[in-house]
Amino acid sequence: MIGRVKAVLKRYWPALRLRTILLGALAFVAFLPVGSAVLLRVYENTLVRQTEAELVAQGAALAAAAVAQWPGAPPPPPADTKAPDYYVPERTTIDLSDGPILPERPNARPAASAPDSAAVEEARALAPVIDATVKTTLASVLMLDSRGQVVRGYGLGGDLSFLPEVKAALAGAPDTVLRRNGDYRPDSHYEWLSKASAIRIHHARPIVVQGRVVGVLLLSRSPRALFRGVYEDRGKILFALALILGMLVIMAGLVSRGISRPIVALSRAARAVTAGRGTVPDTPTTAAIEIRALYEDFREMAEAIDRRSGYLRDFAAAVSHEFKTPLAGIGGAVELLQDHFETMSPQERRRFLDNIAADNARLNQLVSRLLDMARADMARPEAGDAVDPGPALKRAAEDRASGLKVSLELPDPLLAVAVPAATLEAVLTTLLENSRQAGAKSVVVSAAVLDRRLCLAVQDDGPGVAEADRERLFEPFFTSHRADGGTGLGLSIARSLLAASHATIADVPCTGGARFELRLPLAQ
Known about the structure:
Elements: H1 2-12, H2 18-68, E1 101-102, H3 117-137, E2 140-145, E3 150-152, H4 164-170, E4 175-180, E5 199-209, E6 212-221, H5 226-232, H6 234-274, H7 289-340, H8 346-378, H9 389-398, E7 405-409, H10 421-438, E8 442-450, E9 453-460, H11 490-500, E10 504-507, E11 515-521
Parallel strand pairs: 1-4, 7-8
Antiparallel strand pairs: 2-3, 2-6, 4-5, 5-6, 8-9, 9-11, 10-11
């Protein structure tokens, strides 16, 4: 099951950059304290609003009970529950983040007159209901008459009409305010984290009989403390902590799969490849884009090293073979001269000395061509090259071997290429010399632009290239004209020189002679 899930994830895993993974991990870690503080404030504000909602519900119930049995008032008509405006939900209004916190509620002022008798009678009748409610809700409930005088509760007979919440209720609108709690004493050093610990919620509810405010219910209560709320909601908070830890594990896994594990695997593969007993593993689909590119680059490097190692082995074998024949000839001639110099005729001595000179010339030619090949392999493209190939081609044609007719069929003007003139001249000279050695009488050099490159075609009228030799044509030391002094390095050197400028050379099959095409990058 886990294997199938991993396979699905690998198939749909998005390609992420290394900086994206690191930014995501660091941003998540940086967000944790900020997010925790924000969530803590949001949670505390929720607790406060929950307390306000409880006071609103309690006040609405007590006000409805007072209206139903208000002295001298006719019974209220039956409610039309199907009326469209019957249900009017009352939303909470206070907000800890930006709501004002008023001073502690002051004591009631002396009243100028006696309280309303109907309100006093109703307070006496409603007292059992209020007492039973307060026993459960722990809220403080005062009842005021239509002038804001206390008819039940603390401050009996005093005047509270000057309070803003009472003024709003006497005007017919319920109101809730936040006030400081003078009786609050912190029980813990950590209670400074809670803004709601030192406040008290006050809710004023009008008692409306036949469209007239006849009294006010003033309820107050301390909100649920933050730490008590945390304890009561510990299950939810523990779930949130588990979720955060899970996210941390996911982020750690993302960093591990995207960065650390691929690098460790690549390091292990590098050591194995260095020891010659390993291969580069497949590129992980969950790795970062930069790590994937590193895998591909390392794979290309390992393949290039393997190709270069094979090339060096084959090259060393070819060099030893090419040098062995002239060295063996020189050694044999020297041995014969040492043993039979006195008995040899002058003609025989001259013949052996001529053989030594010829083999020495062969070795010098091989060494010179090998140096040319090394320089070609080490050549690098020259930035900003813009060469007109016409003059270089004309010089190579003018220096052609005797008996070979060279025709240049070049357009005018000829586009500039990003290849050095010396490279063009050297490559064309090599091709013309090969045509002469093959027995060709004429060569045609033409040019055309193909695929945003200048294509130079060199075609002769010789016997052409044998099909069996076509695949080995550019291998070092391969030649079919060794007796004519060929070293088999000319085409290898030409290919290396062109490759240094991102150009190519290829043998193109054709009828009647040999055809080589050079694809040269155009100058920018």
